Amino acid sequence: MMSEDTQTILGSAAVALKVRKYRLNAQKLGCAKNFQKREVYIGSHPDCDFSLEDPSISRQHARIELDEAGYRLVDLGSKNGTYIGDLRITDVYLNSPMTFRCGTVDIEFVLGNEAIDVSISQKDSFGGLIGHSVVMREIFGLLERVSPTPATVLIEGESGCGKELVAAAICQHSDRATKPFVIFDCSTVSKELIESELFGHVKGAFTGAVSDRKGAFLQANGGTIFLDEIGELSPDLQPKLLRVLENRMVRPVGSEKTYPVDVRVIAATNRQLAHEVEAGNFREDLYYRLAVIKVDLPPLRRRPEDLPLLVEHFLQDASQKFHRPAPNITFSTMQKLRAYQWPGNVRELRNFIERACLLSSDDRIETRFLNAKPSASTEEPPMGMGETEAYVDKALAQQMPFKDAKQAVIEQFESLYWKKLLENTKGNISKAARLSSMHRKSVEYIVRKLDLNVRGNRGASDIEEQEDEE
User: Fold this and answer.
1) The dihedral sign for the CA sequence 378, 379, 383, 386
2) How big is the CA angle at 191 (ends 185 and 196), to the nearest 5 degrees?
3) What is the pTM of this model?
4) Is 58 helix (H, G, I), strand (E, B) or coil?
5) CB distance 164 to 183 below 8 Å
6) Beta strands 39-43 and 14-26: pairing type?
7) For 271, which DSSP code?
8) Alpha-carbon distance 102 to 115, whole Å?
């Protein structure tokens, strides 16, 4: 039963699920962890909530989620399967206590007594966000409560998930809806100019400063500022941003005066800032100042049940945009859409549907268009200058957003850089960290994230265990 306070907060637009604290224990690996969240991912990837380093565990092996019926264990198409006893399962509800097996690892599930209320919206949209899955309605339930407040919000999620839509929806449902909404992308401004762009400058502050200029914070005064890609903010600017968030006072570059600002701050990143804090790349105090309310946007591959709703929405949009009837989509095509991993997330799906609508010759979407390579992020962008120019021309021809094109190049560079550096250092993590001027924990995380292999068949876990020879 919900308390009266919970009912008052949720109103008629949401219901509450009680998430009890529970423990997962993988005895074979000496790994145990307590959780009190509605959804937990199990796998070998370091970003998983319950990360297990075992060769029989897939990168994303299974998930446990709470819905209206109880705690549900779902296999995520793992290579070695999820079992209860000798029975291989794909989707089952757990009792407590219960032991299940992922690959060759036995995991014990035990419920505790502590419980928290999680609100689940009864709506399938919020602002420009769409989804009927429980994970999205959980986010809608959170946003319904948070938007009318002045609370600072941190949005985390992969590129293309809709972080800017979340920020816009929060603003639309707040008492600042008619006030300025200023978007500032920390990844697109040069290091030399970012302080001026954020906080402003006075005439003569630096070469080229021919007049006074308001920065993003003063432009957003009275309204909302959205700091996109906050994880890219340089370490020397992080304490300055922290002071502004704490004091709500801004000092333009070159000025001796400070100016009060009344802004609501929403930040977003495609990184996991908690990992960046652990690795020493992001200030802990700034992280906690930003993450008063934290919204974790799931990638599209984690919510395939939302695909029919999203496809229908994008079909109608494409029909209006291109002034042609919306084509039909067959059951087999929808199944293929569900099976696809969508590395570009919702943005990729929208572009996919628009292209299919334009190229289809009858009243239905043809599968061959849906099976085309939809995103250059899955291709390997070349590194030579001439080839890079050709890649840019191709990206522009495909109307690929700047962020996607840039991210594709960065991802290849990152993978190649660390692969070669670890080969040069013979897998020595500490030496690689010194040569790259990075914290050792950051390098360990990158090696796991990229699933790098050096020294023949040695994996990331083998590299990490190697002792520093110097």
Assistant:
1) negative
2) 75
3) 0.72
4) coil
5) yes
6) unpaired
7) S
8) 26
What's the rounded Cα separation, in Å, for the pair 392 and 383? 11
99-108, 159-168, 355-364: range with lowest mean pLDDT = 355-364
Residue with tokens 């570009």: 344
Instruction: Decide if pLDDT at 369 tops 70.
Output: no
**Amino acid letter for position 127:** G
Of 299, 208, 288, whose CA–CA distance to 242 is shortest? Answer: 288
Beta-bridge partner residues of 51: 43
> Does the pLDDT value for residue 41 go beyond 50?
yes
354 residue type, one letter: E
Instruction: Report pLDDT digits (tens) over 201-257.
Output: 888 777 777 788 888 999 999 999 999 999 999 889 999 999 999 999 999 888 889
- Average pLDDT along the chain: 83
Taken as a whole, the chain contains a residue count of 470
Cα 187 to its chain centre, rounded Å, is 16
CB 427 within 8 A of CB 463: yes
Amino acid at 414: E
Helices (H), 323-439: 331-339, 345-359, 367-370, 385-397, 402-424, 429-435
Q: What is the DSSP string of 102-146?
A: ETTEEEEEEEEEEEEEEEEES-SEETTEE--SHHHHHHHHHHHHH
Phi, psi of 286 (to 5 degrees): -70, -40
Q: How far apart are the first and last CA of the chain?
A: 60
d(CA 355, CA 319): 12
Residue 450 in tokens: 């990229």
CA gap 281, 274 in Å, rounded: 10
Q: Is the pLDDT of residue 327 over 90?
A: no
Could you report the per-residue pLDDT of 128-163, keeping only the tens digit for each? 999 998 889 999 999 999 999 999 999 999 989 999
At 214, which amino acid appears?
K
Q: What type of residue is 46?
A: P
Q: Please state, in angstroms and rounded to a whole number, the distance separating the CA atoms of residues 151 and 164.
A: 17
